[in-house]
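Sample entry (226 residues):
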Amino acid sequence: MIVTSILISTSGPCRADPRDERALFDTALSVIMEPLPRKAPLWSVVLITELADGRAAVVVVLHHVLADGLGGLNVLAALVDPGLEPAGVPFPRPRPALPILARDALLKRLLGMRQAASSWRSLRRMMLAGGGFRPDPAVPCSLVQPTSSRLGMTAIRLERAPLAAEAHRKGATANDAVLLAVGAALHQMLLNRGKSVEPIAITVPVSGRKLRARTRGGRSGDPHAR
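Predicted structure, serialized as tokens:
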């Protein structure tokens, strides 16, 4: 395994056979847990080559101030997906003039005022689905205790089509099935520790825009599973 650090990236040593997936996960985790320097751009990229079967891996770390989940996927797609059409915008772009910035800020402010009522209704609906603006506190258990620095990563692989088909037969989505599996795994872990929490609720923030949308920002959401 060869690790190439780009710009401000750092990575820890591999602690397994160089072609072992465990070493890849350990390296990726060390990159993710490395604090981004405040005096440098708040992102980093690490290229890991010479993996098994001639594969390579790219570890991208972005501060949330730069992009949300879908924004990060757009960045990754632009880096590794050769099928994307070029945006047709020169890079780097020149700094916009102050009148243009002022006009853009005013238009966004007016648009925000027009959408305030619908945004509030959407926020209220989503917050109520997740337990309201003042939800009940989490039941004390080992899942909500402070964690140590001993973290680990693993991968679970399965075919998406059968999962989605089975979920659709139950009137659900593939995402619903994933949330159910996570909740069931957490419940089983508590049972193995001699504890039980009923119910286990999972609320996940989601974006209100499409994957390839060029706009920035996200929207709180509430795919809610119990």
